[in-house]
Amino acid sequence: MTGRLNSAQPYALGLFRVVVGLVFTCHGVASLFGVLGGAAGGHGGTIAAGTWPGWYAAVIQLVGGALVLLGLGTRGAALIASGSMAFAYFDVHQKVALWPIQNGGEPSVLYCWAFLLLVFTGSGAFALDGLFARRSAQEERPAPEQTPVAA
Predict the structure, then answer these.
(1) CB 11 within 8 A of CB 124
(2) In angstroms, rounded to a whole number, what is the distance separating the alpha carbons of residues 62 and 50?
(3) pLDDT tens-digit profile of 68-95?
């Protein structure tokens, strides 16, 4: 049983990355473009451009989430996304109460740790990172030498 689960690990990790990246991207899209309920579930509202920290967080959510979703620069994008969620928790939520269940910071905490996990595990299967790594490895291999054909 353990062997089968271990062999499926890259695929489970890849699906985890895709789902987390997709949902995180949706937060950015909602805040920046007013779709999917708008900013903070409002009535289609958006966050004003340049507003600190909301607009910058939304840009990180959109771009970082999309990169994680695609598996492109996963570790770097996940590190920035994790940091932004840690900032969101400590700057916004923890002022209200200590525990995430009391201060509404559960999404920030879960995203922070999910992205931190991806920093250390990498992108898993179905990632563009892996595709580009395979292609560059193939290009770096020297071509087999050809023997001259005798005339």
Answers:
(1) yes
(2) 15
(3) 999 999 999 999 999 999 999 999 999 9
pTM for the complete prediction?
0.84
Tokens of 16: 């985890």
What integer pLDDT is reported at residue 87 of this predicted model?
96
Burial class of residue 138 (count of CB atoms within 10 Å of its CB; 0-12, 13-18, 19+): exposed
Report the 10 Å Cβ neighbour count for 55. 17
How many whole angstroms separate alpha carbon 53 and alpha carbon 64? 16
pLDDT of residue 1: 85
Assign 3-state DSSP to the chain and report helix, strand, coil percentages, each to 5: 70, 0, 30
CA–CA distance, 97 with 89 (Å, rounded to integer):
11
